[in-house]
Amino acid sequence: MEACNCIEPQWPADELLMKYQYISDFFIALAYFSIPLELIYFVKKSAVFPYRWVLVQFGAFIVLCGATHLINLWTFTTHSRTVAVVMTTAKILTAVVSCATALMLVHIIPDLLSVKTREVFLKNKAAELDREMGLIRTQEETGRHVRMLTHEIRSTLDRHTILKTTLVELGRTLSLEECALWMPTRTGLELQLSYTLHHQNPVGFTVPIQLPMINQVFSTNRAVKISPSSPVARLRPSGKYMPGEVVAVRVPLLHLSNFQINDWPELSTKRYALMVLMLPSDSARQWHVHELELVEVVADQVAVALSHAAILEESMRARDLLMQQNVALDLARREAETAVRARNDFLAVMNHEMRTPMHAIIALSSLLQETELTPEQRLMVETILKSSNLLAALINDVLDLSKLEDGSLQLDMGTFNLHALFREVLNLIKPIASVKKLSITLSLSSDLPEYAIGDEKRLMQVLLNVVGNAVKFSKEGSISITAFVAKSEYLRDPRAPEFFPVPSDNHFYLRIQVKDTGLGINPQDIPKLFTKFAQSQPLTTKNSSGGGLGLAICKRFVNLMEGQIWIESEGLGKGSTAFFIVKLGIPGHSNESRLPFVPKVPGNHMPTNFSGLKIVVMDDNSVGRMVTKGLLMHLGCDVLAVGSADECVRVVTPEHKVVFLDASVPGADTCEVAVRLHEKFSKRLDRPFIVALTGNTDRMVKENCSRVGMDGVVLKPISVDKMRSVLSELLEHGFLAESQ
Amino acid sequence: MELNRLQRSFLEYTAALFREGFLDSQFSQLYQLQDESNPEFVVEVVSLFFDDSERLINDLSRALDQTNVDFKKIDAHVHQLKGSSSSIGAQRVKNSCVSFRNFCEVQNIEGCLSCLQQVQQEYLLIKNKLEALFQLEKQIVAAGGAINTVEWML
Fold first, then answer.
1. How many whole angstroms separate alpha carbon B91 and alpha carbon B77?
2. Inter-chain CB proximity A623 and B48 less than 8 Å
């Protein structure tokens, strides 16, 4: 600022110059006054500006300068001393303020500079934040894409769809030019192009798996940039343009066997597929990190989805296999059932068939024996008789055993004389034993009851078999038979620890020991003794018979009698002992109402004269009706034969004592008649006995009959004797104990 | 003697019938029911059987000829035939009835037809044989003898 030292201007000398100075001063003054006003205005407006004091100083400085220039206006003309004084004051003040301001500025300028740097710093920070925001946004985008891709991939369980979808979605998300998947072949030595994005039907390109580049990709789970000229990236005939960047990533192919329940695998599988992604050729795009991460995540997801698909396939296959096996099993079961049924039918028919001719042979040959024969002829006939007896016994054994195995054999329980049974067995065996010069002793304990309830015939069969074996296999010495009531200590067979027989009031356990001094048995052979058809030694004895079934049948019978049978021997040449225990009922204590206490009376006791006994026979078969009627008439009865259920109910009167219902008619009719007869004759005394005649001794039939209140069931064919005993039993006891 | 020869041939004939399975023990039971009060029992029963069987066999042929075969009815007929044949001991007839019923159960028409044929055959056979037997019997009775059945022991 130039010092305004103009004290005495010469007005008349340069009027123009004077005028211009005058005007300039005026404007300077104006400006000097308005600038502070503006400053004040703006300071007032902005609350931020921290240097108010400086501004005030500056303002004062400017104001004073302006004042100075203003006062200068008056100094152009002659002026009084006041003006000169004011002017001087103004100038002095101005000088003071401007110096103060100058001093002040020295302090202020560094501050101002630092403000500037801070501003720059903040701007940088803002730019950084922006960048980071951008990054997060792109990551979020990527995440969204991954989720969407995963969703697409995992929404299907079909292998091909999974892979195809992967490629499509990846292509879309990353705007790829081409995307391909190479799967390892069965041999594992090559990679085969399996899926591509744009080629519809990839021709079978293959690439050997041992390329270094491929190994490099397989060795890391990251996406790896590969050269566009590598064989896996050359999917089209090379074009004219620059191929874009190519990235490859491995896709682990997990096998089911990799999944153990307790121990997740660490992807230690050896099989990988290769996914190759190509950016569009002409763009200058580069693979960004987030895109690579996306690709890696997708590859993992694909692996999981594929394994799920594999598991599903496996489980479907297992289920199909199971169904097939079920079908096969069902078929086998049905075949087995058919076979069993066929066998049973066969047996049912053959039962009678086989016995009949045998009996014919036996009967006729014994008849023949009684005629006049030459000695040779007699010998021949005796041989025939012996052989046929053997054969008959064998047939019976086989049929019995089959019945036993079926489980359809039931014991014929009845009361019998135990002592007498032993005596009879002894009598039967004595002749043979004496021929072989063997002595037999029988000792029955004193507490053995005289009568017992059980299957007499079969018990005798078992005893005979065992004793017979003892005799058969002993060349010399003695055989001792001991029988006693088994107490608990004796009941436990060391070989059968699970056998816990408990005698009670109603039954006891009979224990029989047959000891012989015969050939003995090799301890190794003992287990085989009771198996069918197993002969323990080469039978050099000539009179061996039975074909090895005897002991097996005995075992079955004994088991049916809830007992045990076993043989002990110390070895060859040291003899053997057979033990068996059977459960027998005690007569007089029976709590089984189906077993009446009826000692078997000898057959001649039966009344043979039923004359006048009124009987009704119902049979819808005319021939059968006639036969049954004839049978009963032969026994002297007064028979009325009817052919239908209605007629039967109508015709029966209290005078009739027995009604025979032929149950060949399938099921319902006979039961219906029984029910109606019960209704008709409410008083027990009036009602005749109702007996069913049937060819079928099924348990069901018997149960049905007893359910509708029949008094008995008789098995056809009925002989005269059978009918006789049925009638006498009915009249004596009022019911039939067991089916005759 | 003539009577002896006749009796022997009777015995042989019946033995053959039993052996070949034409008859079973039920037939011999029938003879046991024949007594003074009922001297023609066996012949009567057998004639009844013949009539019954012929009727049933005709019914069966007719039933199997239908377009809609009623297996239930056929089964009922066969059941009847089985019953009658077992009542007199015509074993082979009875057995063929058994297989007939099996085919009925599975509704196999061819099987049924072949069984019907078999039944017919067996029936005709047993009819012939029984008629021959009765002829022999008549001759024996005419020659003054009697049938000795107790020793059939079947």
1. 17
2. yes
- Tokens for A171, please give them: 């292509």
Contact A617, A628 (CB under 8 A): yes
Q: Distance (Å, rounded) from C-alpha A706 to C-alpha A686? A: 19
Query: Which of B25, B88, B91 lies nearest to residue A627, judging by beta carbons?
Result: B88
pLDDT at A405 over 70: no
**Is the preceding omega at residue A523 within 30 degrees of 0, hence cis?**
no
Q: What are the two backbone dihedrals, phi and then psi, of residue A474, each rounded to the nearest 5 degrees?
A: -115, 130
The predicted structure's pLDDT at residue A330: 95
Query: A356 and B84: CB-CB below 8 Å?
Result: no
* Residues B107-118 as b or e (16 or more Cβ within 10 Å = b): eeeeebbebbeb
Cβ neighbours, 10 Å, residue A684: 8
Nearest neighbour of B33 by CB, restricted to A623, A631, A666: A631
Q: Quickly state the pLDDT bin for A318 (edges 50, 70, 90).
A: very high
- Judge: A626–B48 Cβ closer than 8 Å, yes or no: yes
Distance CA A3, CA A688 (A): 166
Task: Average the pLDDT over A370-394 and give the result.
Answer: 84
Residue pair A9/A75 in contact by the 8 Å Cβ criterion: yes
Q: What is the C-alpha separation between A564 and A557, in angstroms, rounded?
A: 10
C-beta atoms surrounding A168 within 10 Å: 15
Per-residue H/E/C for A304-340: HHHHHHHHHHHHHHHHHHHHHHHHHHHHHHHHHHHHH
Query: What is the nearest CA distance from B74 to chain A, expressed in angstroms?
Result: 14
Specify the pLDDT at position A430.
Answer: 82
Instruction: Tell me the backbone φ, ψ of residue B143, rounded to 5 degrees.
Output: -80, 0
CA dihedral angle for residue A725, residue A728, residue A729, residue A731, rounded to 10 degrees: 160
Q: Which residues pair with A568 in a beta bridge?
A: A577
B88 touches chain A (CB under 8 A): yes
| Phi and psi at residue A279, to the nearest 5° | -75, 160
Residue A239 CB partners (closer than 8 Å, separation 6+): A281
Strand partners, A312: none
| B49 vs A contacts (CB less than 8 Å) | 623
ipTM of predicted complex: 0.85
Element holding A12 (H helix, E strand): none
A430 appears as a binding residue in the annotation: no
The three-state (H, E, C) secondary structure of chain B, written as one string = CHHHHHHHHHHHHHHHHHHCCCECHHHHHHHHCCECCECCHHHHHHHHHHHHHHHHHHHHHHHHHCCCCCHHHHHHHHHHHHHHHHHHCEHHHHHHHHHHHHHHHCCCHHHHHHHHHHHHHHHHHHHHHHHHHHHHHHHHHHCCCCCCCHHHCC
Q: Is B140 on the interface with A (CB under 8 A)?
A: no
From CA B69, how far away is CA B65, in angstroms rounded? Answer: 7
CB contacts of A626 in chain B (<8 Å) are 44-45, 48, 87
The model's pLDDT over A711-723, given as tens digits with 9 standing for 90+, comes to: 888 887 777 888 8
Torsion A639-A645-A649-A654 (CA) sign: positive
pLDDT of amino acid A225: 85
Residue A351 token pair: 């039962």
Give yes or no for residue A490 having a pLDDT over 70. Answer: no
Q: Which of B21, B45, B91 sits opposite A630 (nearest CB)?
A: B45
Contact A363 B154 (CB under 8 A): yes
Say whether pTM exceeds 0.80.
no
Q: How far apart are alpha carbons B115 and B110 in whole angstroms?
A: 8
Q: How far apart, in whole angstroms, are the C-alpha atoms of residue A428 and residue A457? A: 14
A199's enclosing H/E stretch is none
pLDDT per position as a tens digit, A276-311:
888 887 777 788 887 888 888 888 888 888 888 878
